[in-house]
Amino acid sequence: MIDNLDRVELTRSLLNKPATLRHGYLDVLGEATAAPVPTFAQRAMNSPFVAAVYEGLWRPTSFYLASGVTTQAEERRAAAALHLRSATRLLDVACGPGNFTAPLAARLSTGSLAVGFDISEPMLTRAVQDNSGPRTCYVRGDARELPFGDETFDAVCCFGALYLIPEPFRVAREMIRVLRPGGRIAILTSYAGQPPPINLALHTTARLIGLTMFDKDAFVELFNDAGLTDVEQQTQRALQFVTGTKPQ
Hints:
This protein has a domain at 4-30 and 69-189: Rossmann fold (3-Layer(aba) Sandwich), CATH 3.40.50.150. The protein is globular, with a radius of gyration of 17 Å. The longest helix is centred in the first third of the chain and has 20 residues, at 48-67. Strand 6 (153-159), helix 7 and strand 7 (179-190) form a beta-alpha-beta unit. The chain is built from 9 helices and 9 strands. 39% of the residues lie in helices and 23% in strands. The protein is an alpha/beta fold and 248 residues long. One of its GO terms (molecular function) is S-adenosylmethionine-dependent methyltransferase activity. Keywords: Methyltransferase, Transferase. One of its GO terms (biological process) is methylation. Residues 91-187 form the Methyltransferase type domain.
């Protein structure tokens, strides 16, 4: 079993930038670098209050309304899509308070590592407090420039965050870059494929709070253009789940 110090040092060895250990997570940005918060939604994700209620109330309720899928069903689907039984290094991008990092890490084999990655200090502080475990470590950084070398992880995911992040397609390409050949990628993000009146309402609301609504082809095309294989997509209400494999 990997102890806490070993997990931190193992994660540090995966980084291609220097990192300081702060509040239990590794920080490659430093105290002077604040998360970008130009929109209401991004400000919310950097709020200590939202970080405190996100895992138990905010996310389960909002995502069930948006998709009709429970958190437990999401976890099972994610674990199956990422082939976690054979994975040893998992990267959870925009992990928030670690609400998916920890349960996915529990499905990894002994000696494996799940790295939760986010830019929000309140979210990562909560992740360390609530969702640490023998296979988890958390890193603070900017997902537009993931601080890991090429082909570092054999499973990479981002659940419920790409519509919040600046330059989401750049983030997705970074996720593919750090994925090993044969590795699996999975994302859960917004979906603008409803009938016109509903679609208009979703787009209008999303713009007001600073979210991006993605069409059905956006990430499927990105994955295909990047050379991924076995690209699959599931859509439920206002969300889409897209997976792929990096060829050997």
